[in-house]
Design goal:
mainly alpha; Herpes Virus-1; 3-stranded antiparallel sheet; about 50% helix; zinc; zinc ion binding; ligase; zinc-finger
């Protein structure tokens, strides 16, 4: 939809009106036949039609183009009232700058920022409303440190709130202790399995070393027996030599 033509000051050229909604062009697009439309209007039209609403020539979304520069400049120079005129704003600005003004306009109707509050109020009066809003939050004046809403003042009980907070902290602490306990048990189990595996490997290595040592001792005994046999043979040969 376009800008309401009643908001504009002075004459508005017919060529700057949307051919569908007949208001002043907003975010305009132009067809090959040079008829101009608001983007939202022409997109909505082409959902159910395939031609120009003015001259019935066939058009497609892909054929739509931005407005000619000179027409865009004429459009941006148009003067119009702020949309908050009914609330007291008397600002008149160009179409090119109206959006920026309206985002900051002190007469804009905005919602209270306090959770739960549904009040719509002018931007210029927001600070005053926030100071008295029944949904505003503040710290308990009795020193318990709890944040309360003004509407809850009569129901607020420091002891009850602190007891609730304590129970929450206790529950959280128990959960954390349990988590730490499970984590430590998991780590210990992992280390225990690792140590058992390592012990098994070491035991196998020890058995292998014992086996190797046994074989070496057997070889040594065989060598010593062979040496004794050789020495005896030498002694016998020496005796025979002496007898000869």
């Amino acid at each position: 939809m376009g800008y309401d033509i009643e908001r504009f000051v002075g004459y508005v050229n017919e060529g700057l009106l949307c051919s569908i909604c007949r208001d002043v062009l907003e975010d305009p697009l132009q067809a090959p036949c040079e008829h101009a439309f608001c983007t939202a209007c022409i997109h909505g039209w082409l959902v159910h039609h395939s031609n120009c609403p003015e001259d019935r020539q066939m058009i497609d979304v892909s054929l739509l183009r931005p407005l000619y520069r000179y027409m865009k400049n004429d459009l941006n120079r148009l003067q119009l009232h702020c949309k908050n005129r009914e609330y007291g704003c008397e600002m008149i600005c160009s179409l090119e700058s109206i959006d920026r003004h309206e985002r900051e306009c002190e007469y804009s109707q905005i919602r209270c920022s306090n959770a739960g509050c549904t009040v719509q109020i002018e931007r210029r009066n927001l600070d005053g409303h926030l100071a008295v809003c029944e949904y505003r939050s503040r710290e308990c004046p009795n020193g318990c440190g709890y944040t309360i809403l003004s509407a809850e003042d009569t129901q607020h009980n420091c002891v009850a709130e602190l007891r609730t907070e304590l129970e929450l902290l206790r529950s959280e602490m128990i959960c954390r202790v349990e988590e730490a306990k499970h984590e430590m048990e998991s780590r210990l189990d992992s280390q225990r399995r690792h140590m058992v595996q390592k012990e098994s490997i070491l035991q196998n290595e020890i058995e292998e070393l014992k086996s190797q040592m046994s074989r070496m001792m057997s070889d040594i005994r065989s060598l010593m027996a062979a040496e004794r046999q050789h020495r005896q043979e030498l002694e016998q040969a020496e005796l025979e030599k002496r007898e000869l």
